[in-house]
Amino acid sequence: MFFGNKCLKFASLALCGATLLCRAAIAAPETLPLTPATTKLALTVYGLGFFPLPGQYARFTGTLDIDRAQPDFCRVRVTVDQTSLSMADQGLARQALGADLLDAAHFPTMSYSGTCAGNTIAGALTLHGVTHPLALALRRDGATVDGAGRLVRHAYGIDGMPHLLGQMIKIHFVTRLPIP
Fold first, then answer.
1. How many structural domains comprise the chain?
2. If both were cysteines, with which of 24, 120, 121, 158 could 114 make a disulfide (CB 3.0 to 4.6 Å apart)?
């Protein structure tokens, strides 16, 4: 009987250990690529302060670190090729990339890095050679992760066309996580 109880305790401990190891394997953080194939990255400027003029970036690279066992955990890093901005009106895109606004000739990239804090990504955006904190509201819906934030363009030294464009620029991304 004594030997049987020892075997039962050992089997219980082994099962608990195996369960913990399996959980640890399932809960491992993942690093996912952020590329145009998996992610949409966009900005919106506002004509006269309220007419949305959306644009989308075609070239960027980055990573998203997640832990599916801890949904509040994430870390994002992305670098964007400013010259890849496209808009419905390509003349407007050229103007947005010109010296008066984004000045892509002198500042060809923008970058963002941040970490999740609940339903927000707290991070820093480098745009137009200037870095400032930028929080993005974060929403998760199944395998889709959506984030958006607004910045005051003047804070980044983007001062051109003050009477034609509003002061706000909206940054927005949508990415789909692979299903495990």
1. 1
2. 121
Range of the domain at 168: 29-176
CATH number of the domain enclosing 90: 2.40.128.110
pTM: 0.80
Q: List the pLDDT tens digit at each of the 180 positions of the chain.
A: 444 544 434 334 344 444 444 444 455 789 999 999 999 999 998 888 789 999 999 999 999 998 888 878 899 999 999 999 999 989 889 999 999 899 999 999 999 999 998 899 999 999 999 999 999 999 988 889 899 999 999 999 999 888 788 899 999 999 998 877
Contacts made by residues 169-172, CB under 8 angstroms, sequence distance 24+: 169/43, 169/44, 169/45, 170/43, 170/44, 171/42, 171/43, 171/112, 171/125, 171/134, 171/136, 172/40, 172/41, 172/42, 172/43, 172/44, 172/146, 172/147, 172/148
